[in-house]
Amino acid sequence: MKKFKNQIALALYKMVLLLARSSSAKRSDKTLLLIKNDEIGDYILFRNFLKDIRHSEKYKNHKITLLGNIIWKQLFDEFDSKDVDEVIWMQKKKFQKELSYRYSLLKKVRKKGFAEVINCIYSRNILNDECFVSVISCKNKTGMANNSDGLVNSDGFYSQLVDVGRGIEFDIYKNEKLISYITGKAKNELHTSVLFDGVTSDKMDKAKKYCVIFAGAGKQDKLWPPEYFAEIITYIHKKYKLDIYLCGGPGDVKDSEAVKLLINIPVHDYTGKTTMPQSLNILKDAEFMLSVDTGSVHMGAGVQCPVIALYSGRDYGRFAPYPQAVFDKFYSIFSDNVDQLVKERPDELNDPNIFPFSEIRNIPPAKVMPYIELLITNA
Fold this sequence. Notes:
Layout: H1 2-21, E1 31-36, H2 40-44, H3 50-54, E2 63-69, H4 73-79, E3 86-90, H5 92-97, H6 99-111, E4 116-119, H7 130-135, E5 140-145, E6 160-163, H8 171-183, E7 210-214, H9 226-240, E8 243-247, H10 253-260, E9 268-269, H11 276-284, E10 289-292, H12 295-302, E11 307-310, E12 330-333, H13 336-344, H14 365-377
């Protein structure tokens, strides 16, 4: 039944795409569209490359437009708005569910008449990003080979596919290969740093010594049990006397509440109450942060907050473990099942779906505690 529904949805999406492609478009010379409409963590691993494109010899005189996911708009507006000329914001869930919105956005992008388009997403997907490549009537279309979603053979949408490597590799390295290829200049230093110079929202009263906990996960099956978070918070409070900050987006409020019901310790609960720049401001002065695999761990690394991150083992190597050269205080924790596979049968990790997201629940609090001790002791 699910497969049938997906086929119907795909047929409707194709019809909308054909309608959008039938609208007229006048070509605008020296215009470039960058497609980067995936999630917060993906953007953080990419955002520092915008400057390289903006100042490259090839594109310095182009009008650069970014097609972005509105979920990270606050981050972009605060730190990156000077690196492009225009942004087209996409409400991703609405784009997936409402055909009228999907049509209007595809038509809007087509009518811009871009002379060139670069899809900056490695896991290409016809439903969310490659549809924009298809709708644009220009010859110069670049993407990364070869991690398509498999729904359609989309390689023909592109005039060139850049080989960024098809094996297990941290995502920032794939981004660097793409950008160095299109700009003709390699990037000497790879990092995710967010610079707070002149940031308007850097105004918050904070405790002298604290840590930050993100209890939410974005997806139900990625949640670490609230009783595990409660055990960790109790351990931190009793042994190290740190203030505890709970953070996260509006969708994480119920997860923070579930943790608070299990503890008898005062906490600073900012879940759903801060902007993204304010969350970064909280993170940048923390002793460390603890979270499951969400965009928050990349935010922490971006402001050099020591990170303890819990992972299921899916997409091993692409987003974790974090390379020391990118950030050397990032500690990725996996279950014993994943650790054993890494040690004994690493080739099986090439399957990105080898572990379910729920494998994260097999990480006990006792496996996290030594990393907390390490960070507090060496602070």
